Amino acid sequence: MATMVQGIRMALHYxxxxxxxxxxxGQDAGPPLGGVFTATQGLKTAWNTPLDERGIVGTAIxxxxxxxxxxxxxxxxxxxxxxxxxxxxxxxxxxxxxxQFPLPLVLMTPSGAGIHGSIYHSHSFDSWAVRLAGWxxxxxxxxxxxxxxxxxxxxxxxxxxYLKPKALLRVKSKDKIPxxxxxxxxxxxxIDAPIGSARENWKPNWPLLQEYKVPIGKGKIVQEGEDxxxxxxxxxxxxxxxxxxxxxxxxxxxxxxxxxYPYDWKLIKSSFQxxxxxxxxxxxxxxxxxxxxxxxRMVQEGFYxxxxxxxxxxxxxxxxxxxxxxxxxATVPQVSDxxxxxxxxxxxxW
Length: 350
Fold this sequence. Notes:
- This protein has 350 residues and is of the alpha/beta class.
- The protein has 2 domains: 196 residues, Rossmann fold (3-Layer(aba) Sandwich), CATH 3.40.50; 128 residues, Rossmann fold (3-Layer(aba) Sandwich).
- Helices cover 35% and strands 17% of the residues.
- The strands form 2 sheets. The protein has a 7-stranded mixed sheet, sandwiched between helices. Strands 7-9-8-11-12 form a 5-stranded mixed sheet, sandwiched between helices.
- Helix 5 links the parallel strand 5 and strand 6.
């Protein structure tokens, strides 16, 4: 099965070939590296920019304003903060023009902890992102969704922020991407560049990929349950899957949000009204966290359905994530933290 980064790369290739995607760019996005995580490796339209996040975002806006589809990459989400004013302007474009000037750009960036990247390569951008009115925001947890969300993002007339959970980029999918070869070794041979000097003349041999779209704004119930609704996305969703494997005597309904904005409120509401308890997990810092909005809305619209207050498990309110593994583990939610919070919530009541 493909890894997430292979899924993203194949979706971008599909976009080049079938969706009129003409520009993929960012720092080291073009040859020979193809991105720091190789998400743009071997792509025909990928090219390198200077180390200038504002230039990357500004270029993407300019290309999209002409009606051309493009994908820009910020090498790490930690370095996107100096572009906030430009992101705000990009979000205004379609709305201010009353729909006359679409902005079909995708801005993708690796986000979150899990690789011991310390304070400059571990930030989450989830909660900042959903405050950017006019943007759609997605974050996959597996290769198939990564493929389908990227294709939907390329086709969308709105700007889409595509958050790549960096700790999951090398994790293999449980499901095949349409058109992916049966043998994962064959896929690697065909689309992963060799290491060293052999890379100079290497060209990918792309499989015959098929269109597969994950609708932006649609979550997915990955596991049905009766006692508690567990909601997450990206790397935190992966940890939630691990956490509930060993829980006994608790029936957990697990939701992969996939799309942070617009989010699938219909799915969320029907689930917590059934289970009557809810826990939302992510890695962003705990003050003004995106999950707090979901918990608030649960109380506002479903108070009389709930047996206990909705709970939020998120990152600590500290300036960064420490390099030492113990510091990272203490800063963002871990499997054991999720298990403890589930057990606490099951025992709790109004």
